[in-house]
Structures are given as structure tokens and as C-alpha cells.
Amino acid sequence: MAWIQIRLNSTDKKAEKISDYLQEIGAVSVTFVDSQDTPIFEPLPGETRLWGNTDIIALFDAKTDMKQIVNLLKNEGHFSVDSAYKIEQIEDKDWEREWMDNFHPMQFGKRLWICPSWREIPDKNAVNVLLDPGLAFGTGTHPTTALCLEWLDSLDLAGKTVIDFGCGSGILAIAALKLGAKSAVGIDIDPQAITASRNNAEQNGVSERLRLFLSADTPPELKADIVIANILAGPLKELYPVIDSLVKPQGLLGLSGILESQALSVCDTYSQTFFLDPVTEREEWCRITGKLKL
């Protein structure tokens, strides 16, 4: 099926109201995009955070009269004659096939490969994690996930316990288990992440060694030899007391989801109780690792 989309420039204060109206007049989907590429903190449960300068992208059936849509928006006062907008025809293609064709096995460190299930495994003697993109974040394609996977690959995980804080797809916990960890725990605020992590663990044959908890249900006594959290700088600082409490004495910590410009403030927070290694950077993102001082 062919589609047509309109892209409007707006603000965070107006975006949700415009989104509601676009859906009323026939939009099949509406997406908010930061028009200034400004990093934002991860929203709290039930919260929708928008950017200071927001683009709204609305998708319509290709037969829609877009002049009429523009006039309706103007008549409702959602933007003026001078407001910026762009209308584009979306090519009709097999999006699922194109997406599958563009997702390839990826190597991280010396031993670890992340492989989609429909691709041939490049090295059957390597540590291979089968993972298909799905409901939750984390496939290895983002620099922050890659940095975490490479760190795990560099560690001796034999007999260790690992906590994946903000587990998403479960990729880090599953990789740790396949790299030799004794057991792992995944924690997330999103029930879909718990479902995705469980399904991916079953696909990789490690579900019996992985426990999963919604953050509100995390056992108070829970601790691990290694804690890794790939979320964002804001939540990492806000949740410092929680993450710190999860690390066993002399345990290791890995943090990512941090922009280079945010690294110093995160380091300042965690250096209170951790001996930190030099920051590792990639494509404007970075990883912070360290060892508990106690």
C-alpha cells in the first residue's frame, strides 16, 4: 500500500494537540522527531517528553487530498500561513524484506557475534547470540550497545553473576551468559522488555539461568559481581543509589547510553564509590567502567 506523509514544524507545547487533531482527520500514525537533534532523558513511566523544537510526521493513505489536510490544520489554528511543512510520497515497497536484508551478523570483541535468525552464522566456533529486532531496544547496532558488548567480551565471566539494568531486549544479559557467566538478572520498567528478554533467552537456550524483574519487583537483597546499565545519562545519575546498591564488594560496573558531553557529570556521580577506568568513546557516545571501592 502506498502512503503520503506531512512533516510539520512545531513546539513541545503544541505537538500533542496537533497530533490528536491529525488522527481525528485520518492520519494512520503520528511521530514526534526532535528537529534540533537534541538529546533527551529517558521518560519516566507513563510520561511523554517532547523536545523544545519538535517536528511532527503524520502518515496518510496515498489517496488523501493533502491540500485539504493543510487547510484543515490552518483553519484550526494549528499553524499559520508561514509555518514550515513538507509533503512527501512514500514509496510502496516490501519494508519487512528490506529491513531483513539490511540486518547482518555483527562481531563484538574477539569472541562474540550477534546474529539474526534468518542469516547464516559466520563463525560456528564463536560465541553466537541469536537476536532479531523486536519490541524492545537492543540489537547491537547502536554504539552504546556495541560498547557494552565489547566490554563484556573482554571480561572473564566464568562463575560470575551479572545484572543487566534496563535490559530491553535482554541482549547484554544473554551475551554475558553465553560468554560464561554463571547466572544473570534482567531488570526493566517496561513489561514488553521482560517479554522480549524472556523470548530471546529461550531462543538462545539460556532461559534457565536468567531471572527477569520489573524494576518495582526487584528483590531488595539482589547483588551481582558485574552490573551493566545501558540507559541514558539522566536516569543513570538519578538512579545512582539503586545501581550502586546492586554491585557486590569489589564488583565491576559498566555504564553506557552517555554522550561525550555528559560523561564528566556521570563520572563525578559514580566516582564517589567506584574506581573508574578511562572513558571509552565512539561516535559521540561513551562507556564508563569501574570497580567498587569497598
CATH class of the largest domain: Alpha Beta
- Could you say which structural class the secondary elements and strand pairing correspond to? alpha/beta
List how many beta strands DSSP finds.
Answer: 15
Q: State mean pLDDT (0 to 100 scale).
A: 86
- The H-and-E topology, N to C, reads as EHEEHEHEEEHEHEHEEHHEHEEE
Binding site for S-adenosyl-L-methionine: 145, 166, 188, 230
Organism: Seminibacterium arietis
Function: Methylates ribosomal protein L11.
Subcellular location: Cytoplasm
Summarize the structure.
This protein is an alpha/beta fold and 294 residues long.
Structure report:
With 294 residues, the protein is of the alpha/beta class. It has two domains: 3-92, Alpha-Beta Plaits, CATH 3.30.70.120; 140-292, Rossmann fold. The protein is 28% helix and 31% strand. It contains nine helices and 15 strands. β8, α5 and β9 form a beta-alpha-beta unit. The longest helix is centred in the first third of the chain and has 13 residues, at 12-24. The protein is globular.
